[in-house]
Amino acid sequence: MGSAVFLTGFNLWDNSRAGETAGNVLKQIEQAENPKKNSDKAIPDYILNPKMDMPVVVIDGHRYIGTVDLPVLDIKLPVMEEWSYPNMRTAPCRYKGSAYLNNMIICGHNYASHLGRLQNLRQGDLVIFTDVDGNEFKYTVKDVELLSKTAVEEMESGIWDLTLFTCTLDGQTRVTVRCSKK
Fold it and tell me: What is the mean pLDDT of residues 44-55?
């Protein structure tokens, strides 16, 4: 009983810490966005060269590629360049792909302050990814599904422009949100 109380308390503290850290990083990313944002006169670099690496901003030693905004859930979070379990304790991470190639996969912990409410997204909901240069990519949720925790090939396959995923509370399955570009 005591260990369950401790574990619950730790999880609540870790969720709060992760939310606060992500919020602080989000402010710094928004301040660091490239001033050529939304310039009507210039063609964005990623259109001229979609295979280019996504630009990065370094904050507190961590590399970020942009932000993900889930307006219906009132969640906006920074996205780290590369996934790892330690990185996911700070913010969601790019698991694979690129917004420029329309094949990006973002993963994150199931903290309530991160991607823990993905299962509440519905078909037609808006998802916005903004890179650190200020280029905005709008997506529509097409499907919300549960995949086995070992279904890596299924996670990576398909013609989805954006996929978001997190584990369920028991860790046995992954809530997976598939999106198409608007």
Answer: 92
User: What residue numbers bound the domain in which 134 lies?
Assistant: 2-38+53-181
- How high is the pLDDT of residue 7? 55
**Chain centroid to CA 106:** 4
H or E element, residue 22: helix 2-32
Q: Could you tell me if residue 43 is inside a domain?
A: no
CATH of the domain at 123: 2.40.260.10
Higher pLDDT, 134 or 15: 134
Amino acid present at 130: T
H or E element in which residue 139 lies: strand 136-148
DSSP tally for the chain: helices H, then strands E: 4, 9
pLDDT at position 39 is 54
Better-predicted residue by pLDDT, 171 or 13 = 171
What is the count of structural domains for the chain?
A: 1
DSSP, collapsed to helix, strand or coil, labels residue 177 as strand
